């Protein structure tokens, strides 16, 4: 692995009242790549504020409350074929602070079309346990961890 740093990032497992989690399909890749909303952490930004900002930017709403978080930062490395290409070529992967949030709005508030260059082109509510199977392989260890850590929130309200 080159001597590149990890990019600091926050991630959101957004649960609806039925205990299902929002997943979105990436618009910038040809394959069927699904993931949870996530994004970069600005210098000095509080991760708890950043996760709500990322929701607003990526899915059009931050109508949610934080209900849990993973205690430590989780890292993933990019596969060799993406090094120097993904993440503007400046990072080896990401170090992520993950949060569980309860969605307080209704589905009509979820808007992927507000950004002129949206990151996602589709979304759906999914079972938490299916996440590791629908994400790209290099992110699976983190998504397995999220499925374990956040299982208690997948029971519904």
Automatic annotation (TrEMBL):
Motif (Nudix box) spans which residues? 39-60
Q: Which GO terms describe its molecular function?
A: bis(5'-adenosyl)-pentaphosphatase activity; guanosine-3',5'-bis(diphosphate) 3'-diphosphatase activity
One GO biological process term is: ribose phosphate metabolic process
**What are the Nudix hydrolase domain coordinates in residue numbering?**
5-148
CDD domains, A to Z = NUDIX_Ap4A_hydrolase_plant_like
**Top EC category:** hydrolase
List, separated by semicolons, the cofactors it needs.
Answer: a divalent metal cation; Mg(2+)
Q: Which UniProt keywords apply?
A: Hydrolase
Q: In terms of domain of life, where is this protein from? A: Bacteria
What does the record give as EC number? 3.6.1.-
Q: Does the keyword Transit peptide apply?
A: no
Kindly give the InterPro entries that the UniProt entry links to this protein: NUDIX_hydrolase-like_dom_sf, NUDIX_hydrolase_CS, NUDIX_hydrolase_dom, RppH
State one Pfam family annotation: NUDIX
Described by its record, this protein's role is as follows:
Accelerates the degradation of transcripts by removing pyrophosphate from the 5'-end of triphosphorylated RNA, leading to a more labile monophosphorylated state that can stimulate subsequent ribonuclease cleavage.
HAMAP family from the UniProt entry: Nudix_RppH
**Family the entry assigns:** Belongs to the Nudix hydrolase family. RppH subfamily.
**PANTHER family attached to this UniProt entry:** NUDIX HYDROLASE 26, CHLOROPLASTIC (PTHR11839:SF22), UDP/ADP-SUGAR PYROPHOSPHATASE (PTHR11839)
**Protein name in the entry:** RNA pyrophosphohydrolase
Write down the species: Teichococcus oryzae
């Amino acid at each position: 692995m080159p001597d590149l740093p990890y990019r600091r990032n926050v991630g959101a497992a957004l649960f609806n009242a039925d205990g299902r989690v929002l997943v979105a399909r990436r618009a910038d890749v040809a394959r069927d790549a699904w993931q949870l909303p996530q994004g970069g952490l600005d210098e000095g930004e509080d991760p708890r504020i950043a996760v709500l900002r990322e929701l607003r930017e990526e899915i059009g709403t931050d109508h949610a409350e934080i209900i849990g978080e993973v205690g430590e930062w989780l890292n993933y490395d990019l596969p060799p074929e993406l090094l120097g290409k993904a993440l503007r070529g400046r990072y080896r992967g990401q170090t992520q602070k993950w949060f569980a949030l309860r969605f307080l709005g209704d589905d009509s508030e979820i808007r992927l079309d507000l950004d002129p260059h949206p990151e996602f082109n589709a979304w759906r509510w999914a079972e938490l346990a299916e996440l590791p199977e629908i994400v790209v392989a290099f992110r699976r260890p983190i998504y397995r961890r999220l499925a374990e850590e956040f299982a208690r929130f997948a029971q519904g309200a």
